[in-house]
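Example 3.2
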Amino acid sequence: MRFEPRRAPLRGGRHCIIREVAREDAAAQLELERAIVRARQGIVKHEDELPADAAAYAEQRDRAGLTATDGSALCLAAELEGVGLAGEVTLLRLRPRMVRHVGILGLGVHPEAQRLGVGRALLERLLEWARAHRDADGGRVLRVELYVRADNARAIALYRSVGFAHEGTRRGFVRADDGAFVDDLIMGLSLAQVDDARASRR
């Protein structure tokens, strides 16, 4: 099952279009990631660690499996008037069969588009897809997990609001720009438990 483009309402009467990422988006995706990295909030990269150009960026994503079309990955983008590519959310499922039901989530929003609800819109649409998708053999995503810096309070609040729970802490995992060590939180969401809870309320 692929993703059909959606119009999503944002704060202040604005809206964005959420759609599946295409290969020709590589240059815009790279610029989005550069803008996020330059803002130096909640990230674990430096700008010189990013690919040099769009072609290298696209190749990196290919190698990571993010461009797969077999249901093992989904990448959604939010387009916002005046900003362009305003955010992206990715879900990459683990490859071994015993853990293929697990998807790793990544989310990034352009600094100029934050506090509008872009991240929530992307997250909700991706989780909606994950709940509905079925592989050819009937397999599905049952668990979604993510990693977030402990000092990224807004992101943590967003994840909690859609059902993610704090499951573990990697102590001193990130070394910040000032040299201080920051914890990294492991958060998880069981889609099977959510589905069971919904069914029991019917």
